[in-house]
Design goal:
Blueprint (H helix, E strand, L loop, with lengths): L1 E5 L4 H12 L3 E6 L6 H11 L4 E4 L5 H10 L4 E4 L6 H6 L1 H22 L3 E7 L22 H19 L4 E7 L1 E3 L18 H10 L5 E4 L11 E6 H15 L4 E7 L4 E3 H12 L5 E4 L8 E2 L4 H7 L7 H14 L9
Parallel strand pairs: 1-2, 1-4, 2-3, 4-5, 5-6, 6-10, 7-9, 8-12, 9-13
Antiparallel strand pairs: 9-11
């Protein structure tokens, strides 16, 4: 198959490219590079020994999308492209709705016009908001607590409506929990722009000496040690989930919603300790006030993904930390040259 991967130059996108290429698929990357790097795609080529076509364009640009579908014989789309910073989404909600929701609608219109009706969508556990019970099943109530999460939820609803309107569509909604780690080669990994929004890359940057100390937001939650608990999943396991979703769609039309997580929650302090052990580095931290909107615990029930996709996470916390440190220590400035 030839797969169009929107946002394919990003963190999860590049790891998924490797899984697709190693499974024998052709890939075309469509990315505006606003939060990603051309170098990452070049490193995917280095890892796989295969050529990757990269189109630098925006998903809101219908003309560029139409040109892409007319140039390549696309069989399916994996849709990663989107803005993803929770704090920024609170500050710039219209930008997030325009880019994420309108951009996805434009993409689907272009796909429909080209007769391409197979889509794997990058959703998020943020659609669950503050969960009423744990672990979180796919039939749990949804209720995102910030504009970023609401864009994911609105897109899910839009794609459900699209599937109902035209049963020819094959759509997978993959609700990610917390992707961490890196490819074991150390050639690609997470390279956030500016101050990291997520815990794991902040820990790695403290370990490498880019940042002095880690802020732990609250130690008075009803958890094992008072700090927030999350379901962390190795990015390579997450990438494999997309390949499994594509393969399922070939024999099972319709719409499927699944969690991609491990089912195991780790606290902030447990993550700090595990990474310190893997890296041999001290991770200085200070406890500060809770952030508005943060929740105590969030982890998946991943059993449906195993049942429907034949997928389950295989890599544990030690591998997440080891591979994350391998990437950060080999690339202290990410994809940017040292200054």
């Amino acid at each position: 198959m030839t797969i169009l991967v929107t946002g394919g130059a990003g963190y999860i996108g590049t790891h998924t490219l490797i899984e697709l290429l190693q499974a024998g698929h052709q890939v075309v990357v469509y990315d505006n590079l606003c939060n990603s790097s051309r170098i990452a795609v070049q490193r995917v080529e280095e890892i796989t020994g295969k050529k990757v076509d990269l189109i630098q364009a925006d998903i809101c640009d219908r003309q560029s999308l139409d040109q892409t579908f007319s140039t390549y014989e696309i069989d399916a789309v994996i849709h990663f492209a989107g803005l993803k910073a929770v704090g920024e989404s609170v500050e710039k909600p219209l930008t997030y709705y325009q880019n994420n929701v309108s951009g996805t609608a434009t993409l689907c219109e272009a796909m429909s016009a080209a007769g391409v009706k197979q889509l794997v969508f990058s959703s998020s556990a943020t659609v669950y908001g503050d969960p009423q019970s744990l672990p979180i099943r796919e039939d749990a109530a949804t209720g995102a607590t910030n504009p970023y999460g609401r864009t994911k939820l609105f897109i899910e609803e839009m794609l459900r409506d699209l599937s109902i309107s035209d049963p020819a569509w094959r759509i997978a909604l993959l609700r990610y929990f917390n992707p961490v780690g890196a490819h074991p080669s150390g050639l690609i990994g997470e390279d956030p722009q500016g101050i990291p929004n997520n815990l794991f890359p902040y820990i790695t940057q403290v370990a490498i000496g880019q940042r002095q100390t880690l802020s732990v937001f609250g130690d008075d939650y009803a958890t094992i040690d008072g700090t927030g608990v999350r379901d962390y999943i190795h990015v390579v396991d997450l990438a494999r989930g997309h390949l499994c979703a594509l393969e399922r769609q070939n024999s099972n039309p319709g719409l499927l919603t699944v969690n991609l997580g491990t089912g195991q929650g780790y606290s902030v302090l447990e993550m700090i300790k595990a990474f310190a052990t893997a890296s041999g580095c001290d991770i200085p931290y200070q406890v500060v006030a809770r952030r508005p909107g943060d929740i105590a615990s969030c982890y998946a029930d991943p059993s449906l993904a195993h049942e429907e996709l034949g997928w389950k996470a295989e890599k544990g916390l030690d591998e997440m930390c080891r591979d994350g440190w391998n990437w950060q220590s080999r690339n202290p400035h990410g994809y940017k040259p040292a200054v």
